[in-house]
Amino acid sequence: MVSPWTCIRCILTVTMFACFLALVTDNMALPRSMQGIVIAHSEEQAAKMCKIEDRGCLKAGTWVQRSGPKEEEIFPFHEGCSKKFFHICAQSKAAWKSLGLNVSATGAQDFRMRRLLSWLWVPANVGCNLSSRSSLLEALSGRRVLLIGDSIAKEHYVSLRCLVGDAAVKDEREHFKPEQSVVSLHGGGFIQFYRLNTFVQESTDVVTPDWPSQLVHEADVVILNTGAHKHARLSDGQNRTAVAEMARTVAKTLQSQNQRGVFIFRSHFLPHASCEEVTAPISSLGRVPRPTQFNWHTFADQDEEWRNAFERSGPRFLFYNITLATSLRADAHTVLLKTPSKRDCLHFCLPGVVDLWSLYTIVEVLQKLRSCQSVEAVSLESKNSLQTVVISHCDKPLAWIFKYVTRNVSNVTVVSKCNRPVEGAPPQARIVRSRNVGRCDHTYAQWLAQLQNHIPPDRQASDLVLFIKDNDMSARSIEHEVGDHAVPFDELLAGATGASRFACGRRMGVFRKGGPRASIFHVKALMGTFQMDAYNRTLSKLASSEGEPFKSKYRNLMAWMKDLGIAELFRNQTILPACYGGNFMTSYSQMVLPVSNIWQRIETSLSRSDSIEEGHFAERSWAALLSRRLTLQDEVKTFTSLRRIQFRPPLCGMIMVNPKL
C-alpha cells in the first residue's frame, strides 16, 4: 500500500512541476500523438520532403576578408563558453594563466583571434544562409542531436553547445568512462556527445559499432566521424575495401537501431603541416600541405567510400561535405597548448570554421525531418497497410472481430489457449494452440519474441499489426469515474499511422458530465507504484487454476520493469503512455527495441500461470514499449493540459485532462 504521506508528497511535487511548466510554454494543446493531426500531401511531395540533401554550402566557395571586426563582435555566439572549453582560443587572462600561459601569449592569441575572425566564408551557392540563434533554438526544440566520434566530433559538440547560448541551457552533464556529454535545453531539445575513436574493435576484424544502441534509438539526428582513428586492419588507410565494409556496416546498424532519424557522416578535412606559420586562409586545396602521419593523406579515399555507402542507404542518410571550407583554414588551428612549444595543427579555434558545420545544416535538416515525419503519417494512412492481426483466443467466437476490422488483412494468427473450438476465424487464419498462461499479454509477448527483434523480410517497417482479444468487452465499465469504450476501427488506424505509431483499442472517457477526461498518459513515478493483491473480477480466487498465487514476487510495476530491463528504456521519461483492455495497433517499426531480448523476458515472466499480477504489469507497459518516445516538449504540453491526476489503483498516475482537448 502507498502511504498517505507518499501521496501528499507526490501531489505537491506534480502540482509544482505543472505550475512551473505552465510558465515556460503558452501552447495548451495536447501532444500531437494525442491529437491525430494530419496534413495532406501527395506521395511525390512526401518523397521530396523526406530526401535529406547537402546543398554544398561548405563544398564550394571562397574566404573573403572583411574589415576588422569590433572587439565586441568577436564572440557573437560564444559568450559564456570561454571558461568552459579549451579549444576556444581567445580567453580571458585568468583562463590563459590557468593553462600555464603567460600574458604575452594571451595578447598574441587574442590578436590572432581577431585576425582569424576577419575572414568570411562566401558559399558558391547563393541560396545558402547562416542560421540565426533563434532559428537554431526553434529547430532544436523537442529534438535530440547526437554526435559520435573523436576529439573533432567533441569540438563540433562544443561549438553547437556554445551556439545555442548559456541562456538556453537548462542542464549539462559530463561523464568520463565512457566519455559522453549532454546538454538539455529549456525548449526541450538535447545535444549529446559520445566519444568513440573507432568503429571497429581493435582486437578483431569484426566491424561492430560500439556505441550504446539506446542513444541512437532516441536521437533525431546522428552526426558521426572518427577521423584518423582507424583499425590496424586498414593498414596505411589505403585498404578501401575494408573502409567500404565498415561504412556499409555502420549505415546498416544505424538503420536497424532507428527507423525515423537522420544520419549524417561529416566528411574529413585536410590537416596541415607547420600551421603556426600560416597567417591567412589558403587559396586552394592544391596548396594544402599533405602530412602523412595518422593516415591523413588517405582521407579523400575514405570519404569516397563513406559517400557511396550513405548515398545508397536511403533518403535519411547524408554525406555532409565540409572539406573545402575547413581545409583552407590552415591559419585557424589552436596551435598553442599548455606547453607553448607544442603545435596542434588538427583542432580549430572557436569561434571559427567549426561553427559553420552546424550553422549551414542543422536547422535545414531538422526542418526537413519535421516535414518528413508529418507527411509520413498521411502516407501510411493512405496505404491502410494493416497486414497482420494477432488474436488471443480462449472461448469467444471471433466473427465480431472481422466485422470490426474494415480492411482486408493478409495475415491472421489466432493463438487459442483454453482448449476450446475456434469459431468465426477466416479461412486463411493460422490457428496456434498454446498453453494457457499469461492470458492475452503472454500471447502478444510470445508473438513478438518470435520476430527476434527483426522486421520480417516480407513486411515493411510501416506495416501495421492489430493485437486483439476474443472478448469484445461490450459491457465493460471500469471504476474511478472513467468509462471504457471501444475505439472505432478507422480512428484506431489513423492513430497507429500518426506520430506515436501506436493506438489503444479502448477509450477511457468522461464518466461524470463536466468532469475531466482520461488520457493515455501517466506520471511514470506514480504509475510505477501500481500493484495488486488480487484481480477484482476474481477476488475470492487468490490463486490461479494451476495453483500458483496471483501475487507476484515484485513489490510493484516499477520493480518488475527494472528486473526485466524495461525501466532502463524510459530512464529519461517523466510521462509514459499506458493502454488498458488488451487491444491495440502499432507498426512493425516499433517492435525493434534497442535491447534485443525484452520480448523474450516478458514472455518468460508471463509463463508462471494464467491469472497473475505480472499480466497487469505487462498490460500497462505495451503502449510505452511500442510507441515513439515523448519528447520533453510533448511532456510539457501534457502537464499544462492536466486537470488532475489519479492516485488510486488501478489507474495510478493517469493524467486527467480538459474534456475539450
From TrEMBL:
Transmembrane segments: none annotated. InterPro entries: TBL, TBL_C. It comes from the Eukaryota. Pfam families: PC-Esterase. GO terms for molecular function: O-acetyltransferase activity. Residues 135-358 form the Trichome birefringence-like C-terminal domain. Belongs to the PC-esterase family. TBL subfamily. This is Protein trichome birefringence-like 8. It comes from Symbiodinium microadriaticum. The lineage of its organism: Eukaryota, Sar, Alveolata, Dinophyceae, Suessiales. The gene is TBL8.
